[in-house]
Amino acid sequence: MRALSQVKPALLFLLLVCGSATAGPLADSVLRASPIDEIVAQYPAMMSQGVREGLKQSGRVEPFVANTVSSVVSNAFSPEEIRAQVVEDLDQGLDDQQLNSVLSWYETPLAEKISRMEVAASRPAAWKQVEAAAAGLQEKYEGSERETLFERFDRAARATESTVDTTVAVQLGLASAMAAFNGNKGASFEQLQQKIESQRGMLRGMVAQQVYTGYLYTYQQLSNSELKDYIEFLESDAGSAFTRVVTNSIQRSITEPVESVGSQLVRFFNPG
Predict the structure, then answer these.
(1) pTM metric for this prediction
(2) In whole angstroms, what is the distance from residue 258 CA to residue 30 CA?
């Protein structure tokens, strides 16, 4: 599961924030005003690059295999379908008053500033910058109010919680494919499942650290006052409902195609 650890949890949380969904125009306007649209558009590339890097770094597969798996992963995720699902879920999960409150927030200069930051930090090209800045940022903010505010932010944004759940779900999906591919020669799905679940605590610690790094990097140009205003929006009734619905919708859109990815890989590498 080394490949999945390369699908950067620090960037996945920025998302946390099928088919032809029919939804109201207000929900669509909210999504257009938020940074979700632009971040979702990058998601196939984000997943593909992360899996490719992970497989290559593991040293267990040839570059051709890593590139093939990466291509299958990229093609499995449709930004249009993810977006349509999010709009539909927002339309069903929030009332008009909540949607209007969220829209009003995203039309403020501060929200527009934050959206630009989140979109920029979500680009795959930013990954190396985040990693390079990690140690310096953690040292800079050690013992500061910014460090203290992270707990509130993480809880309100459901960042670590949702990222761990999504990562485990994706790992379980790929484990099922690996078990089918290996047949009687490797570990069974039950054995892989047990191993993955047993590592949840360790995974949570790793994810929390990476999410914290992403938080420091993404919002470093905000003042503490501005960051508090953002957290207060996330903690509000409308902001909390928006975050919950978007997180659950995107998590479902990420995990559901995994079974298809596994099946395609099994057919490709074991056509007999």
Answers:
(1) 0.78
(2) 28
The label of the residue with tokens 């054995």 reads 191
Structure tokens at 148: 């203290």
Q: Tokens 């859109």 belong to which residue?
A: 253
Contact 99, 27 (CB under 8 A): yes
Residues 6+ apart with CB under 8 A from 20: 84
Give the single-character DSSP code of 256.
Answer: T
Quick: pLDDT tens for 236-252.
999 999 999 998 888 88
Residue with tokens 């990562």: 167
* Cα–Cα nearest to 124, from 55, 48, 179, 67: 48
Measured CA to CA, the distance from residue 248 to residue 245 in angstroms comes to: 5
Structural tokens at position 155: 């809880």
